[in-house]
Amino acid sequence: AGVNLKVSQLISVQQLVSCSSTDTLEHVRHLMNKNHIRHLPVIDNYSLIGVISIRDISTAFDDEATAAARSVPA
């Protein structure tokens, strides 16, 4: 029965939350937390250029922390 469902029956009708490629990761993380979402469309010049996930952001912060830890003299 699910094969006959239309996408319109499943989509959320809330206002679309999106970001642009120039937004900071901290801002995007804030948008995700505030709106309780895990994926965010990235829109530049009214065109979808990609989707960023909370995992992408977490990985970027982890990579940054690892790089910072390596640059600290022992």
Poorly predicted spans? none
Rg value: 17 Å
Q: CATH H-level name... which superfamily? A: CBS-domain
CATH level 3 topology:
CBS-domain
Give the domain tally: 1
Q: Write the element-wise H/E pattern from the N-terminal end onward.
A: HEEH
**What is the C-level CATH assignment?**
Alpha Beta
> How many strands, which pairing sense, and closed or not: the largest β-sheet?
2 strands, antiparallel
Q: How much is the average pLDDT? A: 91
- Individual helix count: 2
Helical fraction equals 25-40%
CATH architecture: Roll
Model description:
The radius of gyration is 17 Å and the shape is elongated. It has 74 residues and is α+β, with helices and mostly antiparallel strands. It has 2 helices and 2 strands; from the N terminus they run H-E-E-H. The protein is 39% helix and 18% strand. Strands 1-2 form a two-stranded antiparallel sheet. It has a single domain (15-71), classed as CBS-domain.
